[in-house]
Design a protein that fits this description.
2 helices, 22% helix, alpha+beta, 2 domains, elongated, 179 residues, single chain
């Protein structure tokens, strides 16, 4: 009579651990990007870079912006980073769908910006823009490539611990260790 209670208890603990584990863990997302200036005096100049963000605060509901964790950007043979930004650099989303990055640098000639597809709600609407002190301006196309994401292994570890506990419980019962 004691053995069925112990099995139910073990199963209950395992179920409680699984229910208490958040269904979605935070992940760090890493992207590379690049593009070409399509108009103005800087026609055909290229730019490239990479960035990362954590989706810990992303709710996947409505318009959202997440601060970037890292950013490196190379334009006209000059490197830029988060510290060069005029405003906080963000990754923008609509209902969890990535729309691009907002990043601008005004203290360089030309001033430039990466603009997400936020207002339109499409990643394909993201673009690059620049303005020179002499009055020239132009736009460029941009493409993003997710390089990897690293999920937190908490739920996997809890699942493994629960399975190991169930296995040990069954083994003890089978070998008569818990009399």
């Amino acid at each position: 009579m004691f053995k069925p209670f112990k099995t139910v208890y073990t199963a209950s603990v395992f179920t409680a651990l699984m229910l208490l584990t958040p269904s979605s863990q935070a992940a760090d997302f890493n992207y590379t990007f690049g593009g070409t200036v399509d108009s103005g005096l800087l026609l055909n100049e290229t730019f490239s870079g990479s960035f990362s963000y954590s989706d810990l605060l992303l709710t996947h509901s409505g318009d959202e912006s997440i601060n970037l964790s890292t950013l490196s950007f190379n334009f006209l043979s000059t490197p830029f980073g988060l510290g060069d930004a005029d405003i906080t650099a963000t990754a923008d989303f609509l209902d969890g769908a990535f729309l691009g990055v907002n990043f601008s640098v005004g203290g360089f000639d030309p001033a430039f910006a990466l603009v997400s597809g936020y207002g339109i709600g499409l990643l394909e609407a993201a673009y690059f823009s620049y303005d020179t002190r002499s009055g020239d301006s132009g736009l460029g196309s941009i493409s993003y490539q997710q390089s990897n994401s690293v999920d937190e292994p908490v739920s996997i570890a809890l699942f493994g611990i629960g399975l190991a506990g169930l296995g040990l419980s069954r083994r003890r019962a089978k070998n008569g260790w818990d009399q």
